C-alpha cells in the first residue's frame, strides 16, 4: 500500500525530467562571437569555415544587435559565380537579416516559445539573439527552446499526474469502510470499480445495520477529476441525508440528496433565464439505492436511471426493474421530486445486481454499438449458479471481449450479491 510520501517519490522518480528545468531564456544562452558592420563578408566567410557548427552570426553596432547572418543563405550565395569577387570586401550587412528575433534574457520560456512561433520558419531555422538590457549577450537555438518547452510540459504533466494518482489513493480510502462492511456482511458478493481515468465519477456505499443493510451505487456527472469531485460532494450529501432520514426508505434518501445538491449548488432550471446570466452548474448523479431487510427477507429499491437486476432461485430469468427517469440534483429535476420504492421478497439464494451506464453504454462488437442491458442479463442468466466472484470474472471477460479495440467510454462500476 502506497503512503503519501512513497507514492510521491515513486511517481517523481519515474516521470522527472532527465535535464534541469529551464524556466527563462538565459538558460538557453550560448556565448557567440558577433560581427559588426565594419567586418567584411570575407571575415564572415572565414568565421563560418572555422566553426562548422555556427548556424548564424549576430551583427551588432555599439553593443546592440542590428541583424543576423544565416550560415546557409550566406554560404550558398558565395557559391554562386562571381559573388566572391563582387562581395568579398563589402560590409557583411549585405547578407544580414535586418529583422531577427531579439529577446531579453529574463524572458520566460513560454513567452519565448510564442515569439518563436510568431516568427515562423525563419526563427526556427536561425534561432534568436539574446540581450541584456538591450545589449548583445549571446544567441539561442530554436531546438534548445523546443526541448525546454517539452521539459516544462513534462514537469507540469508529472505534477498533475502525481496529484491525480494520489487522488486515486484518497478515493480508494474513502471506499474502504464500505468494502470491509460488505465483506463482513455478504458471504457471496462482487464489486467492480474501474475508473476510466485513474479517478472515477462512479462510487458506492454500503452500511450494515442490526436489521439489514443499505447498498448504494451512484454515477456522477463526468469522469476523471470532475467526476471524482462530484463523488466527494455526493458522498457528503448522502451522509447528511442518512443523518436526517430513514435508511429503510431509499426513495426518501434520494429525494433528500437531491434537495441538498440543488440548494448547495444553486441548481435550478435556468432555461428561461437571461441570455447573459452568470454560468451555472448542472451536475448530479444517477443512482440505485437499495435497503435489504435481512429479518423479513425483503428488498426495497429506488432508482434514478440506474436499474435493478434480480434473479430468484425459483426463476430462470433475470428480472430488470427500471428506476425513475429523473436524475439527482440536476437543474431540471424539481426540488420536490420523489422517487418510488419498489419492494420484493428475497427467497434464500436470490441474486441482486446494479450497474452504472459505463457498462451498458460501452461501444463494441462488430457494429460498434452499446453493450446494452440485454447482454448483461444474458451473462447473468448463464452464470447465475456460479459464486459471485466467478460471475464477475465471466461478466468482465464478456464485456472486455465485446469492447475489443474500442476505447473505454466511461467509468465502469457494478455490485452483485447473493442473499
Account of the protein in words:
The longest helix is centred in the middle third of the chain and has 33 residues, at 142-174. The protein has a 5-stranded antiparallel sheet with strand order 7-18-15-12-13, sandwiched between helices. A 5-stranded antiparallel sheet has the order 8-9-10-11-14. The protein has a 3-stranded mixed sheet with strand order 1-2-3. The chain has 12 helices and 18 strands. By secondary structure, the chain is an alpha+beta fold.
| Helix and strand sequence | HEHEEHHEHEEHHEEEHHEEEEEEHEEHHE
Total DSSP E strands: 18
Tell me the name of the CATH homologous superfamily of the largest domain: PPM-type phosphatase domain
Q: CATH fold name of the largest domain, please?
A: Phosphatase 2c, domain 1
Q: Return the average pLDDT rounded to an integer.
A: 89
Query: Outline, from the CA principal axes?
Result: elongated
What's the Cα radius of gyration?
33 Å
Query: Could you name the CATH class of the largest domain?
Result: Alpha Beta
The number of helical elements comes to: 12
Q: Terminal Cα separation, in Å?
A: 32 Å
| Uncertain residue segments | 1-17
Q: How much helix is in the residues?
A: 25-40%
Whole-number count of domains? 2
Amino acid at each position: 500500500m502506497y503512503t503519501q510520501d512513497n507514492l510521491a517519490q515513486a511517481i517523481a522518480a519515474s516521470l522527472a525530467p532527465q535535464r534541469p528545468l529551464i524556466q527563462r531564456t538565459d538558460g538557453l544562452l550560448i556565448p557567440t562571437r558577433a560581427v559588426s558592420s565594419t567586418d567584411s563578408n570575407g571575415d564572415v566567410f572565414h568565421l563560418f569555415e572555422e566553426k562548422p557548427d555556427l548556424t548564424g552570426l549576430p551583427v551588432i553596432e555599439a553593443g546592440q544587435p542590428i541583424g543576423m547572418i544565416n550560415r546557409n543563405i550566406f554560404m550558398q550565395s558565395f557559391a554562386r559565380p562571381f559573388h566572391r569577387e563582387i562581395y568579398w570586401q563589402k560590409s557583411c550587412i549585405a547578407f544580414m537579416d535586418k529583422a531577427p528575433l531579439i529577446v531579453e534574457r529574463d524572458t520566460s520560456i513560454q513567452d519565448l516559445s510564442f515569439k518563436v512561433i510568431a516568427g515562423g520558419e525563419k526563427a526556427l531555422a536561425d534561432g534568436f539573439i539574446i540581450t541584456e538590457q538591450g545589449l548583445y549577450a549571446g544567441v539561442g537555438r530554436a531546438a534548445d527552446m523546443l526541448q525546454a518547452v517539452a521539459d516544462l510540459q513534462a514537469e507540469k504533466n508529472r505534477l498533475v499526474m502525481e496529484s491525480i494518482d494520489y487522488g486515486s489513493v484518497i478515493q480508494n480510502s474513502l471506499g474502504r469502510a464500505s468494502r470491509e462492511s460488505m465483506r463482513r456482511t455478504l458471504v457471496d458478493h462482487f464489486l467492480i470499480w474501474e475508473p476510466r481515468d485513474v479517478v472515477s465519477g462512479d462510487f458506492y456505499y454500503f452500511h450494515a445495520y442490526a436489521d439489514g443493510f443499505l447498498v448504494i451505487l451512484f454515477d456522477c456527472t463526468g469522469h476523471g477529476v470532475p467526476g471524482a469531485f462530484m463523488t466527494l460532494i455526493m458522498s457528503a450529501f448522502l451522509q447528511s441525508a442518512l443523518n436526517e432520514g430513514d435508511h429503510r426508505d431509499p426513495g426518501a434518501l434520494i429525494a433528500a440528496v437531491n434537495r441538498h445538491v440543488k440548494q448547495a449548488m444553486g441548481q435550478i432550471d435556468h432555461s428561461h433565464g437571461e441570455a447573459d446570466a452568470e454560468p451555472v452548474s448542472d451536475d448530479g448523479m444517477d443512482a440505485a439505492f437499495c435497503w435489504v431487510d435481512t429479518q423479513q427477507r425483503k428488498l426495497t429499491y429506488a432508482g434514478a436511471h440506474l436499474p435493478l437486476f434480480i434473479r430468484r432461485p425459483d426463476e430462470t430469468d433475470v428480472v430488470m426493474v427500471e428506476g425513475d427517469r429523473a436524475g439527482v440534483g440536476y437543474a431540471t429535476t424539481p426540488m420536490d421530486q420523489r422517487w418510488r420504492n419498489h419492494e420484493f421478497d428475497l427467497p434464500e439464494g436470490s441474486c441482486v445486481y446494479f450497474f452504472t451506464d459505463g457498462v451498458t453504454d460501452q461501444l463494441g462488437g462488430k457494429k460498434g454499438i452499446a453493450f446494452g442491458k440485454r447482454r448483461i442479463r444474458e451473462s447473468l442468466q448463464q452464470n447465475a449458479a456460479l459464486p459471485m466472484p466467478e460471475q464477475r470474472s465471466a461478466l468482465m471477460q464478456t464485456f472486455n471481449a465485446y469492447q475489443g479495440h474500442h476505447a473505454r467510454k466511461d467509468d465502469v462500476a457494478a455490485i452483485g450479491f447473493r442473499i
